Amino acid sequence: MEGTSVKRRRLARPVHVAATMLPAILFLSGAQASDTDNWPTWRGPGGTGVAKSAAPTGWSDEENVRWRAAIPGRGFSTPVVWGDRIYLTTAVPLEEAAEPEDDGAARGRGSSFGRGGPRGSATVNTAFLVLCLDLETGKEIWRKKAREAKPHEGYHRTYGSHASISPVTDGTALICSFGSQGIYCYDMDGELLWERDPGVELQMRRQFGEGANPALHGGVYVHVFDHEADSFMLALDSKTGEVKWQHERDEPSTWSTPLVTEYDGVWQVIVAGTTRTRSYELYGGKELWQCGGIGLNAIPTVVRHEDLVLVMSGYREPNLQAIRLGGKGDITDADVSPIAWSSTRGASYTASPVLHEGRYYCVQDGGKISCFDATSGKAFYLEERLPRGTDLKASPLAAGNVLYVATEEGDVHMVALGEEFKLLGTNTLSDQFFVSSPIAVQGHLLLRGQSDLFCISEGGSDGD
Predict the structure, then answer these.
(1) Considering the entire predicted model, what is its pTM?
(2) In this structure, how many other beta carbons lie within 10 angstroms of the beta carbon of residue 99?
């Protein structure tokens, strides 16, 4: 790209760390927890933002806070949970940062990403950490330093971090990505199994920072590396870290998480993009189909409903599309339109949707919420406004009969799930700022703020 100097490293072979010496018992914890209420990926067990169980509906600084755990450094990755353990990432600066120069605008194709300005943070020597906490107590079980390095570029000063990519797990492997700083696979007790240098220093638009979450299915770990130079998708063997396939992508910076789904006997990986929504064969990497893109800054995650995949972008020219599965090749201008329905209103910019019982919920950064029939596109309600000048980046959560919407103001608004907009109430934690998305497991609600992780439980409060 003209005016952009991109350093691309050679794709390194994985580093294996004494995997054969680990006792077999270390791998039993995943099997034992497979039928429990887990949260294995960023958007939950079904990839739709829906929890298996209900969550608390009332709390405050003094009420129903089971525990509060201080998290070092800065990180906006959403925790994952398997069994009785929480796993999350963070990045700890090891020296004081100087004020950065404003060089992000020269490289980007878009404008400011909201409050705080687009200028990237300064970069200093940083420790990239993986933490494991006890779900019931919040006590730290183990901590591992994946890497210590000075990042090549910064992140959005308000909404970014060097640890914004959420882990994934299948109960045997815990895979944590720090993007350009490497991918690290641990067993559930923190033993490093392998690590992989992806071979690229991502040049993100206006130094917004890295944050596209990975997918894990059937022993294949998939990670999208879209940026302002040579974009690609990488698929690794989750047991060994070996490359299964790599596919170049004609895309600028995106942050959308891929969907792994099966259709007509073929497992495929579907990811939204600025120029195209594309589908790839999960086990071989072959491109199966592509459809005209949804516009600049593709961020929300793709979800599937019946034989439709729903994609959207809410930036500048909002666009929400329901694409029919079953096409091959470039289906953009097919004789029979691949678009079952679409909308230019209600689309989220940053937050990923919730798909619950055939209803598709979208929450906009400025605090407006919409609900569509996922099959027909009928709007049950459109751009209803949440209270108190809501600003948000976190994705919503469905648990029980409630949609939880966490905000930058430390509020969590609760909206009734259903065809009618009804605000049930608002709970607030003082001096908090939620960018990480809320999750619910085993009757607990987990909220990650800027420096603390909160566990909300009915009738339980252990204080700080």
Answers:
(1) 0.87
(2) 8
From the CB of residue 174, how many other CB atoms can be counted at a distance below 10 Å?
26
How many residues in the chain?
Answer: 464
For residue 234, which of 197, 274, 288 has the smallest C-alpha distance? 197
- Asked if residues 175 and 87 have their Cβ atoms less than 8 Å apart, the reply is no
Task: Tell me the CATH architecture of domain 15-456.
Answer: 7 Propeller (2.130)
323: how many CB neighbours lie within 10 A of its CB?
28
Residue 130: how many CB atoms within 10 A of its CB?
22
| Whole-angstrom distance, CA of residue 51 vs CA of residue 441 | 7
Alpha helices in 142-256 (DSSP H): none
Measured at the alpha carbon of residue 221, what is the angle toward residues 217 and 224, in degrees to the nearest 5?
120
Condensed to tens digits (0 to 9), the pLDDT of residues 362-376 reads 999 999 999 999 999
State both tokens at 171.
């109960």
3-state class (DSSP) for residue 29 = helix
Residue 434 has pLDDT above 80, yes or no: yes
How far apart are alpha carbons 249 and 231 in whole angstroms? 5
C-alpha count within 13 angstroms, C-beta hemisphere, residue 143: 10
| Residue owning tokens 């047991």 | 239
